[in-house]
Specification:
FGGY carbohydrate kinase domain-containing protein, transferase, 579 residues, D-ribulokinase activity, alpha+beta
Length: 579
């Protein structure tokens, strides 16, 4: 019996998206209406030792293969139906030798550990040193590189692991490595190189449009920058170690899946594979064109609609993505990045380094956490749902005017992993103001709510800062884990003062990755066309119309801003005392 006889839908076009996050590899299959047919997850290993956080590309590839096979089985999708594949991943740094085998980036010397994870902060000193130079590339990342970008991490390896440095044949962003592992083509994405490697994508503006869809010789590296910071050896061989050629996201790579990769994934050799995206940017591609009926009535054009939006991709961290037709330089905010997400638009990328991770940290390190987890399990609800219910009951029992007011004497600065935007201070620390000896579940619920509010005030700070510098953001779109928490989304809407559009499909990052495959398979003429066809809006959450809620959050926002100013003051007092 043939595959088509076995399959009741032989003519379907299905697009596969793969997303490698911090803790797992996920695969999702979508039809040509952008509807999710099925998805699966496979855990990945992570090693944490202080500021050093590492993973294994071998382990990740095994997890990707397991997730893809499982998703195809769950969705009842056969190999012939998959018309294109796209990869998205965290912006972690992968090291491989000339055979493609892992090279350790770890003090431990463990050869499996060949990935420096995006959130690793070992290279803070190297970032500070790079930022002491005046290279013009720095103005395209908010005025300075972050320790989460690749140049500081590369410099750290060169200075600390000399043997590994001499062995590495290719340094790659994780999503580029995944598409390389799948196709054998090491063309890099404009998304990864521009956003994390200081590549100047606008060097290609005069050269071509996305519709020409071919890989381009890498002409956007600033060789003087690499020489100046002590990494001039990466310029050798036409930048062979960091990328000789680049392409727009969704550009078809090589001859599609190699026979080896196809066998490992349970798919057909030659299946088109699109040039990849960073996971947050895939989330942007998966939601940014989600249309509301009102948009077509109030905005003059599609461009107006697109440029008035900011996407919040809320996972372990939150990325804040906005696009514009003209380049906008915003201090402390990454970008402007040309064609790094939506081709031929400039991308502004704000972010908070710990959001989902911070909520987990606050909950898991509280005395009441084990009791709460047991109660949630017995009620068959998530810990977040249980906390939301506790807060509702507390508001009723105390006759609080609204749930948000429960935290009137508790304030949180959420910079537990530094501040990415807009103050761009990796040394900023988290602050919890208003603690007592109470260790009850109710006290944990208040801490949880105050943390959500602190995260939302951080988003308000980013939106206001971007609008002050030329953006006109009036609508948010949210996707990722935290966007599934109704309390979190309502607090963000009330605090920022913007409606928040949630996508019809809950797996926006996977959809964004699948869109890359759809474009690579020539199912759409461009990435933007594919976004318009496959993005779809779901629920819209509006800010409260109660003026008391606005007045309350305005007051708490002033306190939030003051917490950082106080921290700077405290730093200088101590520095003076120790001088």
């Amino acid at each position: 019996m043939t595959t088509s006889e076995l399959n009741p839908f032989p003519s379907r076009s299905v697009f596969l998206g793969v997303d490698v996050g911090t803790g797992s590899a996920r695969a999702g299959l979508f039809d040509d209406n952008g509807k999710l047919l099925g998805s699966a997850t496979s855990p990945i290993q992570i090693w944490k030792d202080g500021d050093c956080i590492e993973q294994s590309s071998t382990d990740i590839w095994h997890a990707v293969c397991a997730a893809v096979k499982s998703a195809c089985s769950l969705a009842n999708v056969s190999d012939v139906e998959v018309k294109g594949i796209g990869f998205a991943a965290t912006c972690s740094l992968v090291a491989v030798d000339a055979e493609g085998s892992p090279v350790t980036v770890s003090w431990s010397g463990d050869s499996r550990r060949n990935i420096i994870v995006w959130m690793d902060h070992r290279a803070v000193k190297q970032a500070e040193r790079i930022n002491s130079f005046t290279s013009p590339v720095l103005q395209y990342c908010g005025g300075g590189v972050s320790p989460e970008m690749e140049p500081p991490k590369l410099l750290w390896v060169k200075e600390n692991l000399k043997e590994s440095w001499s062995m590495v044949y290719k340094w790659m962003d994780l999503s580029d490595w995944l598409s390389y592992r799948a196709t054998g083509d090491d063309t890099r994405s404009l998304c990864t190189t521009v956003c994390k490697w200081t590549y100047l994508g606008h060097a290609h503006m005069h050269q071509m449009t996305e519709k020409a869809s071919r890989d381009m010789e890498a002409c956007g590296w600033d060789d003087e920058f690499w020489e100046e910071i002590g990494l001039g050896d990466l310029v050798d061989g036409h930048h062979a170690k960091i990328g000789r050629s680049v392409a727009f996201p969704g550009h078809p790579l090589g001859n599609g899946l190699t026979a080896t990769a196809a066998k490992e994934l349970g798919l057909l050799a030659g299946t088109p594979v699109g040039t990849s995206l960073i996971d947050a940017h895939a989330g942007g591609v998966g939601v940014m064109e989600s249309k509301l009926e009102s948009d077509s009535l109030t905005k003059e054009s599609d461009v107006d609609t697109l440029c008035s939006r900011m996407v919040l991709v809320c996972g372990t961290s939150t990325c804040h993505m906005a696009v514009s037709r003209e380049k906008l330089f915003i201090p402390g905010v990454w970008g402007p990045f040309w064609s790094a997400m939506v081709p031929e638009y400039w991308l502004t990328e704000g972010g908070q380094s710990a959001t989902g991770a911070l909520l987990d940290h606050i909950i898991e390190n509280h005395v009441a956490s084990p009791r709460l987890a047991n109660r949630a399990a017995s009620q068959k609800v998530s810990v977040f749902e249980l906390l939301n219910n506790i807060l509702k009951t507390m508001a009723e029992d105390t006759s609080s005017p609204f749930i948000s007011a429960l935290t009137s004497d508790m304030h949180i600065l959420p910079d537990f992993h530094g501040n990415r935007s807009p103050v761009a201070d990796p040394n900023s620390k988290g602050v919890i103001f208003g603690m007592s000896l109470d260790t009850s579940e109710k006290q944990l619920a208040l801490l949880y709510l105050a943390t959500i509010q602190g995260i939302a005030y951080g988003t308000r700070h980013i939106v206001e800062h971007c609008n002050t510098h030329g953006h006109k953001i009036d609508t948010l779109l949210a996707c990722g884990g935290l966007s599934k928490n109704p309390l979190c989304i309502q607090e963000h809407a009330d605090i920022v003062g913007c409606p928040i559009i949630l996508p019809r499909e809950s797996e926006s990052v996977l959809l964004g990755a699948a869109i890359l495959g759809a474009v690579a398979g020539k199912n759409y003429p461009s990435l933007h066309d594919a976004m318009k066809a496959l993005n779809a809006a779901g629920q819209v959450v509006h800010p409260s119309s109660d003026p008391k809620i606005k007045k309350y959050h305005d007051a708490k926002y002033r306190i939030f801003r003051n917490l950082y100013e106080q921290q700077l003051s405290h730093r200088s007092i101590i520095a003076e005392a120790l001088a």
